[in-house]
Amino acid sequence: MRFLDALAARLARSDMLQALTLLLAVLLVVLAFSWPGGNALVNEAWFSLAPIRHALLALAAAAFGASLAPATAGAGVAWRHEARVTLAALLVWALVTLPFEVIAHAASYPAVSLAWGLLTAPLTVVAYYGLGALLARGARALRAAWALPLLVPGSLVLLAWVDLQLGATLLNPWTAPLDPSPAYLAVMGGGAILTAMGLTLERRPRRAEPA
To answer: For residue 38, is it left (φ>0), alpha (ψ between -120 and 50) or beta?
Structure first.
């Protein structure tokens, strides 16, 4: 119950509440503008909404991961708890925004199974959360934490560019929902595992060697 209480409190905090409200507003606008009107026989709303949903979830996860990365190499108990609660809150985001994709998918009848989005969205959130934390540690080590607002979205653009150069879907959350790729699933799954390990495994302090 303590974790659930902490999760509820984290979701109600102003930074996350405002960001979630903005995300829901964007998805609502996208769904409204991509929904056909009149006597249109084809509904392609899902092809617009799914990429935007996945990309924004990845961006939000990376941003929150970067904002919570510890300034020192050793993470304390309080930081780990805060990081876990924040990640759980972002997974709630994936759940809260899911109805938008379900509605668009049901209306568009795409060849891609809805199960693909159900699987990749949470993995993408966890993996990009870890990426954000990694970027923050690197930036702080180089005394360039001021550049994080540029590094976080820039990293997503770079990963999308890498995918385009390779001609495959490995890292790009924008194209992932439209192009089921076992390679993307493997990469995001591996990133999610590494992130989970970083939030659960504690580093033991080194013992002083006897003189």
So the answer is: left
Contact 164, 107 (CB under 8 A): no
Give a yes or no: residue 205 inside a domain. Answer: no
Question: CA nearest 90: which of 190, 173, 19?
Answer: 19
| Residue 133 resides in a domain | yes
Q: How many independent structural domains does the chain possess?
A: 1
- Per-residue pLDDT of 112-130, as tens digits, reads 999 999 999 999 999 999 9
Sign of CA dihedral 1, 57, 21, 33: negative
Please tell me the distance from the alpha carbon of residue 180 to that of residue 110, in angstroms, as a whole number: 12
CA 75, distance to chain mean position in Å, is 22
Task: Report pLDDT digits (tens) over 150-176.
Answer: 999 999 999 999 999 999 999 999 999
Distance between CA 89 and CA 86 in Å, rounded?
5
Query: Could you give the C-alpha distances from 54 to 122, 164, 202, in angstroms and in order?
Result: 9, 17, 31
Instruction: State the pTM of this model.
Output: 0.90
Residues contacting 30, CB < 8 A, separation 6+: 48, 49, 52
Nearest to 178 by CA among 91, 117, 118, 96: 117
Residue 152 lies in a domain: yes
